[in-house]
Amino acid sequence: MRIIKTxxxxxxxxxxxxxxxxxxxxxxxxxxxxxxWIIIFAFSSSILLLNYYTILIPPKGNSLSMDxxxxxxxxxxxxxxxxxxxxxxxxxxxxxxQRNIAWWKHLFNFSVYSLMINCAYYVFIFTNGITGPISVxxxxxxxxxxxxxxxxxxxxxxxxxxLAGSExxxxxxxxxxxxxxxxxIITLVLSLVLVILMKPDELFGxxxxxxxxxxxxxxxxxxxxxxxxxxxxxxKDFLTGLNNHGYFKEILEKExxxxxxxxxxxCVVIMDIDDFKKYNDxxxxxxxxxxxxxFGTLLKASSDVAxxxxxxxxxxxFSIIMPNTDRKTAYSFMNELRKKVNDTYxxxxxxxxxxxxxFSSGIAECEKETYSISELLNKADQAMxxxxxxxxxxxxxxNGHSEYSVQRSxxxxxxxxxAEYQLKIFLSKDVYTYRHSKRVYQYAVDFSRVLNxxxxxxxxxxxxxxxxxxxxxxxxxxxxxxxxSLDSQEWETMKKHVTYGKDIISTNKKLxxxxxxxxLHHERFDGNGYPYGLIGKSIPKLARILCVIDxxxxxxxxxxxxxxxxxxxxxxxxxxxxxxxxxxxFIEPFIAMITEFDNSWDEQQKEVAASIEN
Length: 614
Known about the structure:
This protein has 614 residues and is of the alpha+beta class. The protein is 65% helix and 6% strand. The chain is built from 24 helices and seven strands. The chain has helices at residues 7-26, 34-52, 67-78, 80-97, 103-126, 139-165, 169-197, 202-235, 245-262, 276-283, 285-305, 327-343, 373-389, 403-408, 412-423, 431-450, 455-467, 477-480, 488-495, 497-506, 515-520, 541-555, 567-576, 584-613, and strands spanning 55-57, 62-64, 266-273, 309-314, 317-323, 359-365, 395-397. The chain has a five-stranded mixed β-sheet, with helices on both faces. Strands 1-2 form a two-stranded antiparallel ribbon. Helix 13 (373-389) links the parallel strand 6 and strand 7. The longest helix has 34 residues, at 202-235.
């Protein structure tokens, strides 16, 4: 059967059937007076009106519909049968009015409301609630009935979106509860307000409530539009109308998080208009601004077709976020865009070196172990400068092994000198940490030669190894130098050194690439590390390597709260914890290097002993 081909369709079929069964078998239409029918149709009309005029709520465009307030008020005043009849009449009229909506959506919506109303009513009766005018004695039944109504709403609608979109169930429900909790509470309060308004005169109370809700809707709509207008101005670049730099980074942060959680590809592009300064010098800044506007319009038009997000990054630089796009697709798109820009005439571009408008761009693909958006943007920036250095009018994909990484990196010796200067602060406070950091640094130098690391990766690993424990400068001396094991409170304090280290390093922009190593070298491959409990390859590669090196030196060196291990004992521990604390791919190469060093040391010792005997 086609109707139940997918889990989402099966779910729709099941809920629709269940809702209709509840409506059919639990609904008994009694004899109503003329006045009763007037109230029933008044309820249905009010729901229709208020469904059309919903109250928009900033900041994310949430809306508050009053229909649930009316259903609950009807349930509390008149009971189940009347409320289900109101639902049925409203659904029939709404389906006829909104014929552009698929029939199965109308049916599913009706069934969901049927289940919610039925269950809420029976919870109300079960908790000793009595239908009729509002009563303090009904306080708990009102609350339990309300909670049941909206718990079912979350569950029934939420499960459909999860099945249809393969969303993470925990994250989805957390988000939906956070977004709608306030709205649900307002709905309950309004339903009780309606019950109170209808006590002296039912029709007048309902009419008054509907008028108030309608006016609120209009007022909030104006407020929302004003909010939206101001928000857009704050997030848009004044000249081009594209997203500005700050908003671009906000969007990128969310897109990177989503890409990692859903294991989907994502690319970022940074592009720079070639020889724009020369164009400005020739034709002036006003003409230059026109060129930026036209370029931005073309860029947005092309990107909108592919559902990409465009921003003006600054000056003549622009950026694009490409969700669900791998580097090859991004490269193809950018090359097509480059040719399109070359073929589009702009006034005065014939005076530029290529005789047309051109740009250079760099592409960086987000990986599972990407630490931050800054790292991603730096890679795209490096690739862009590589395109510039290779003659401009080019698209370059970031490659850590390319020569441009070497050209753009600062002198390793100079950075080591700066890091060494910072590290010497430890001499006066904690000699053990100073010496430990020096040994870890040397291991990193040697191990980076063994592994197939790019020049940038080698530099980052070596520098990170040297200052990975810089945060311990903030740890009290009595904890650092304590003899014996640390108690739980002291251990929690000690663990904060990674966060302190990150704060210290963050003050120096030149060292921002070292932040993942300083902050994450105590994360474990199995997710039981700190500070975040990251798992597997969500931990940056260099932090996983440093974890192995750091742990080996800690095991083989005397420290206040732990006895030293021999090299062989430490090697056995590395193997035992492979796949748990450590990434398995780095264990055997490191052990091979250590074993080789150990054997070389033994041979040197034998040679020394032999020379002494002779």
